[in-house]
Amino acid sequence: MAALMILAPACAGTVAVALWIAAVAALALALRAGTPHPRAAAALVAVVLAASAAAATQVAAAQPAREAAASLPVDGGRALVVEGVAVGKIERGGDGRRFDALMDVARLGTRADAEWEGTSIPVLVRASAVPAALDLGARVRVRGTAWRPDAGDRAVLVVDAAEVEVIDPPSGVFAVASALRRGLLDRAVGLPAPGGGLIAGLAVGDTSAVTPELDGAMKASSLSHLTAVSGANCALVVALAFGGAALCRVRRAVRVLVGLAALTGFVVLVSPEPSVVRAAAMAAIAMLGLLLGRPGAGLSLLTTAVVVLLIADPWLALSLGFALSTAATGALLVGAGPLADGMARWMPRPLALGISVPLAAQLACGPLIVLISPQVSLYGVLANVVAAPAAPVGTVLGLAACLAAGVPALGAGLTALAWLPAAWIAATATMISAVPGNAIPWPEGPGGLVVLAVVGAATAALIVRTRPLLRVSGAVFLTGAVVIVVGTGPVADIVERSRMPADWAIAACDIGQGDAVLIRSGGTVALVDTGPDPVALTRCLQQLSIDRIDLLVLTHFDHDHDGGTPAVVGRVDVVLHGPTAAPDDERTLRRLDEGGARLVRTVAGMSGALGDAHWRALWPQNGTPAGNDGSVVVEVTGGDVPSSLFLGDLSARGQKTMAARSSLRTSYVVVKVAHHGSADQDPGLYARISPAVALVSVGENTYGHPRPETLDMLTRLGARIDRTDEEGLVVLWADADALRIWHERTPP
């Protein structure tokens, strides 16, 4: 019901009234029922209806303020100034950094009638860079543009920030929490990588120091949950606090209060994300059970926590992180025991217990994960078993090091100790993710979810002690699934390669929300950007039978343009790159250099050969700062390559500046549209270069890319638009003076 109401908030008030009436009627039936079973059934219905009514009431109460904020005239890329408080972690996003904020002031330009001030409204802020003082609890002023996300999103507006200013830094407990986190990060980053960057992630969920390469390896090996603070962390904190109070021989009530106080401080320290809030609510209910002397069953506690949270915050209903956290906890409570009992028939019971926990979590969470990453890790359970002994040790030592920030020697010593388990986990992720065939592609969307859920159920039926008919059915289904996976995997890959045009010259890879475009001439290959995901880039290179990259162009260092770099380290001859601004940028280049690539800091005017074709850099100029408008812009002409222009992520202002200072052709056959088709484009540039084909490298995203106004502009210019999100891999080549285009999927 919570999900339905946030998708259709205009109906929430009417639905809430109807549900409250139905709940009262069900309660009346329960009170008048003469026998226990009808009375219990009516009471249960009354509780369900009341909970649904409460969630609908919450949505209806928030709707007027949300609707007023959403009615701000932000269309057309109008300049906006927003003031509010940062209420979420500052996370790495595809285009820089992102964080949640509660907006209480908004102004568009200088119009008095376009000002808004009122109740705090949730917004999502995205920026290429943020001030060092920005942290949870800081009051900020954001200048940029905004757009309205899809129905069901918690954020009323998504603000693309040109500038983020900290008006007031965090204060009170938020200032203390910020200082503790920063102290841990400062000490951890001085330790050997990649383990040093993982310490804060294990302890407090801060992944800002985790390199993109390690992040990709953690995801590929199904270990990324270790840096997502959830039930295990909360349980450790509560257990330590409760145990410490018990050692002091205080009363049960005092122990519970100490546990709740520690839990509250921990939530503030790590930031109240959905998984943390869910775990904290469950722990709080468990503490209440202890206080009353009725601990209750874990599944009942989880259910109660979920219901309470959905009533308090209905927008959690569509949070994938919340769903994953809940599914994992439920699987551990319900499935780990039976799985361990089943496997104990074939192996020592301690080993069965160790395997059952990650296996139960993977069987439950796998179907949800394929919604965001359509692949299945074959060695995820193995990785979790290997990492399991180190995870709690790293968490406890890292948390202790964080709390010891005010004691330099003690804090440094604890951080050094925490490095050992962190390095173990990082090495496990790196080695497991590098094993050939670690991940297999899986069908996308709801269909993939259903198929993997059935595969998981069949796997569980084979392991647990159940009826022979169920085991036989599970074996038959799994055999069929293996045949299908092989048929749609290796066999389909061979068939797909046979379909690929042999004479392709330009290929836009389908790598999600990012850029990765290949150019081939005379047996020489160039790659413009690497996309966000090494796995996706590797798949594209294999599909095109590319083993070596002669020329790699890193237009700039946003994650959606350089995140896939680990896939080509050791396979690149020359790297053209623009200005750097952060340690991560330098690390990316250093890895390429260590892999044998020659690094070339690129400025306008540089040129060179690419087989029979010729490349020329049009941007940036000396002194251009790093970022979107510092993107390396290259054109490729001649030979068997259609004249092409690759615009990186230039904004409209950057496009105008580049056009004014560069010598452009009057037309290009192929133009890679800037910034995945965002609204921030200069129509004058596109009219000047008159593209015949507009390539939009884009994937599923919350930015609204490609924006309708950009697509309309390209259509008016007569350009053919090819999008990787709709067509998959897009391949182009010239054939007898005609341009040929092949795409992997038929566009809708």
Using brief descriptors, characterize the structure shown.
alpha/beta; 7-stranded mixed β-sheet; globular; 8-stranded mixed β-sheet
Structure description:
- By secondary structure, the protein is an alpha/beta fold.
- Helix 15 packs antiparallel against helix 16 (about 410-435) and helix 18 (about 470-490) runs parallel beside helix 19 (about 490-500).
- About 50% of the residues lie in helices and about 20% in strands.
- The model has no long low-confidence stretch (mean pLDDT about 85).
- It is globular, with a radius of gyration of 28 Å.
- It has 26 helices and 23 strands.
Can you lay out the helices and strands and say which pair or pack?
Elements (H helix, E strand, L loop, with lengths): L1 H6 L4 H21 L3 H35 L9 E7 L4 E3 L2 E13 L6 E13 L11 E9 L9 E12 L4 H16 L6 H10 L7 H9 L10 H17 L4 H19 L3 H19 L5 H15 L7 H15 L1 H8 L5 H21 L5 E3 L2 H8 L2 H14 L4 H27 L4 E3 L3 H19 L4 H21 L1 H10 L6 E3 L8 E5 L2 E5 L5 H10 L5 E6 L4 H4 L9 E6 L5 H12 L3 E4 L5 E4 L2 E7 L13 E5 L6 E3 L5 H10 L8 E3 L10 H7 L3 E4 L11 H9 L3 E4 H4 L2 E6 L2 E6 L5
Straight-line distance between termini: 32 Å
Number of helices, where a helix is a run of at least 4 consecutive DSSP H or I residues: 26
Class from helix and strand fractions: alpha/beta
The level of helicity is: 40-55%
Query: Which radius of gyration do the C-alpha atoms yield?
Result: 28 Å
